Amino acid sequence: MPNKSTHDAGIVIMSVGTFSLGIWNGWNFTTVLYTIMGMFLGVFVTPDLDLYENCRGTFWCWFWKPYGKMFRHRGISHTPIIGTLTRIVYAGIFPAIYIIKNGISLPWNILLLILLGLCLSDTLHVIMDRISTWIKVR
Hints:
By secondary structure, the chain is mostly helical.
């Protein structure tokens, strides 16, 4: 299984590729920017948060420890889109209650682009893990 640095490098390479492809094809700059923001969010909200040693920072590890107890490693947390949504729900439940209670309006188009970038980052993570496992098994 690749380590944190390898996953981070993959995200950076994918982000540069997405930026280049987006600019080359004339995509809206802000659309590309928000998608890349979601990809970089994947460095911190990674499928490996179910492993305590893969956290970054004391508070962050403390915050994600219950998540690691709920989901076994390489289980649902390593399922593209579904795993991403489990982490979004876990991290966003209390902010969502606050937002709903206070009637705060959110820029859904921007949030969806960031979610897209996070899903892409998680998908790359899972692909890298599977390729690494496949190579080791062979």
